[in-house]
Structures
1.
Amino acid sequence: MYETLALVGATGAVGRIVLQQLQERKFPYKRLKLLASERSVGKEVRVNGESIKIELLAPGAFKNIDLVIASTPDEISRDFAPYAVEEGAVVVDESGYWRMDPTVPLIIPEVNPDAIDNHKGIIASPNCSTTQMVVALAPLHQAAGVKRVVVSTYQATSGAGLAGTEELNDSTRSALTGKTYPPKTFQYPIGFNLIPQIGSEKQDGYTSEEMKMVYETRKIMGDENIQVCPTAVRVPVAIGHSESILVETEKPLTTIEARRLFEDAPGITVVDDLDNQQYPMPRDCEGKDDVFVGRIRRDISGGNGIAFWCVSDNLRKGAATNAVQIAELLVKRSAAAAK
Ligand code: 2RA
């Protein structure tokens, strides 16, 4: 049913991993088309031992394509997704453009797989900082009802694409050699620094990245009453977003109960043994698909609260893996419907 596949943005930081994931997870496609803007047309990409030429992203490109996985800036997605759907394709989109559109399901397969059945051609994958947090919150929500979340993120430079990683390297090298570094991708040099701004100012002093965590969390968890107070910070780490999360629940949860809920939830690995200095760190989570949870504690400031630390590879579960899992979910649902 989803046999012909198009990938938009194959040469970007996330697109490269989507290609890897399609091979590693043995996604059952028969034909793969790579599409990009004029700049990349004609470039060849090796996929599974074969060389595929990048073709132009333009109307007509999606005829005879069943499924699209797209990792592009918002404006590109805004422009191409409608004609891709008109030409008969289903689009799994990683940009931010469609996520809050009420006609577009926003999917994390471990959390709200059933919402995918309402799609009208476009399915959105959430922002990386939201995805890992919601994977971790979902089992607590089911057991005890999440009321309020206070989260601080420590986000890797690859969240800003290949340019972000390059800037981390260049800025660190400049700092070590005593040179000044004029930042291009981030607001300030990121080497030996932290920048408490990701995105532009959106409302009440919160940034666009922070407000994504508020709105996307409510949409995925299907509960408009969940209150989220986020602070998003860029850190000098190449891959792997970390988050310090305090969650307040309706019903009380003990630390032991919370740990068991995390352990039993799909897509979560618990690494939590402070005595033996075991907790998730970005360098250990890089290249892995799970969301890692540790430092699980009760909230000693009062109320029904659990505090924990959450790390995930932002290019994998935060982007490519989640998109490929959405594509797998579509295949599974269509096979079930055909029976
Ligand atoms: C970042 N969350 O880390 C963004 C990428 N979608 O910059």
Note: The longest strand covers residues 146-155.
2.
Amino acid sequence: MPDNPKLTGAPVRLEGRAKVTGAARYTGDFADETLSAYLHPGETPKKVLYAAAVQSTIPAGRILALHTEAAEQIVGVHAILTHKNAPRLKKARSLMQSELAKYLPLQNDTIHYHGQPIALVIAENSEAANHAITLIYATYAESPAHVDFEANLHKAQPEKKVGSGEAGHKERGHPQHEFNKSEVQIDHIYTTDPTHHNAMEPGATLAHWHAPSKTESIELTCICSTQFVYGDAIFLGEAFDLGMRDGMLRLGLQIGLGAEMSSKVRVAAPLIGGGFGSKGNNSHLALAAMAAKYTGHPVKLVLTRPQTFSMMPYRGGACQRIRLGADSTGRISTLMQEGILQNAETGTFIEPIGEMTSHLYNVPNTLIDHQSVRLNVNATGWMRAPGITPAQFALESALDELADKLAIDPIELRLINYAEKDPDTGKEWSSKKLRECYIAGASAIGWHKRNVETREGEEAIGYGMATAVYPTNHFPSTARLTLNADGTVLVQASAQEIGQGTITTLGVIAAEALGLPLTQVRVEVGDTTLPMAFMAGGSSTSLSVGTAILDAAKKLRKKMTQTQERPLSVKGIAGRTFGRSKYGRAAFGAQFVRVAVNHHTGKIRVTHMAGAFAAGRILNPRTARSQFLGGMVMGLGHALMEQTSLDLTHGAWVNANLGEAHVPTNADIPEITIQMIEEDDSRGSDLGAKGIGEIGITGVAAAIANAVYNATGKRIRSLPITLDKVL
Ligand code: MOS
């Protein structure tokens, strides 16, 4: 990258002011006036209508009758959509692995889960819509339902493909044989409960079908809270039969060619109020678009908080068995991680708990296995570091158990089994400073006080640690740079600003690559009218879109010397760098915590957390720190409080609100030290960056569980670690 000015490294946040002053506009904020920015020239749409969803109250069966008469009488109600009158949708591919790939709303009378949308009221205002839905009820023919994960574990079925297509079962060496003859064995079951993302902004869509136009190709525009505008556009195009078949193929092809995908669907997500994996191809997208088509009005559907639990995905429950075989010096010869994952009848996503298992430590014999139990609940999906979050809880707890059994320091055990190369592929790492992370984290937490400082008044003190890890995802992307006559530069890519600071980070990358001050750069994201970029997921945005920006900057610099023409636009492509690298690529880190556990009440106070991360070049320390911090806070929630519980009779989420689904608040958050270890990843990519959005959550739960063990001698193998488990 060009050398000056040194913008990477400067703590900046371009979109911060708009957010903290309330000027930022999210999907739910759009109404008649603000919709105008998305209209065709000369178009005057009808008034925006408001939709509200009615949900099923049984977990399985058929709708016999839907009683909508009373709701129809409410002043302001325009229409009520049910499976009888709703527009028909075509089976569409879902790039977000959402349940819409398997099940489309309001298409038939079958009920797969409690909370499934069964009707949609469309009214002049949200008050009328929300009143009307309370007057609608259904009569059902119920069928037997399976909603209890634990009770159905024996029905688990093997999964051939998990995550984004990895093998569900993988073996290297002779894991079983080596385990059986191991000197020291660890064999335990670890369980984790379902948890929901609870992004601040609920799922929301404003859909508008444009009046037919001779000059404009876009027929449907959706402003939508989504992590993947192109993914949603492709889904909608296929579902409404607007000629978007083979969307995924076209996406890849178009990125490869550097061309823009012309389309009849536009999806815009100017700002997204958090998602953590939950946003994209959700049913509200299809419902709002159906309602707009049916009524001929723009229609807005904003989910209520309880609906975000049942109409959006979540992290399902998991039951994992870890087996470790080692010798008395701590060398691990066998590592087996087998998971039974909770899923749904309508589910398409199996959480990949084995994604990093065989890459993480220098273990010659490994086994990974995924099975799933399909229940009558809404579909599970991606949630921050899918797979790896529950996997690291189980694996890093088991390592602590092994260290304890061998009386070896937990850091030492990890160093004994340190993977200098990727043990699964034999490839060298593009870079790996995990050792430095252990040292930095241990020093920040005061690891030397472990087993020295054991008590403080009524509280037992404990220290725990775990490894954090996340793969480096480098996806195809494009970006456009335009040099204006006044010397300013416009950066455009369809990347999503989901709260992580992408607007700032992409601006920083462009400014540095062009040798401009950041004030001269403007960034536009979140719209399928912009050059195609991949989703806000897999911690991939900065690296993927950033690489496209670097490519564009190189071309722009060259073109600037050839022509005085302004504005001057060039397109950069990151498609070619996508693919197999000759290096193993991942970000690594270490989580350290200190806890104080009350002898009498069992209350666990995390008093200090220290995370050290080696994640390539840090492009912007302010947004990077927030990502690590947010991940660690979410990890604390996962460890100690987050748990969505099902009513085992009706299959309903019983704590589907922020009063009863506990997440960490400021009072729960201790002092957090974050250290970013300098790392040169130029062998991994030109940008030298790695993903930082998800690694922060990984390892936290195990570090806390290990600290609780260190404090109390109680090994808690199920999350969340509530005080009843400690007492
Ligand atoms: Mo993230 S769970 O890949 O959106």
Note: The domain at 16-24+475-573 is CATH 3.30.365.10 (Aldehyde Oxidoreductase; domain 4).
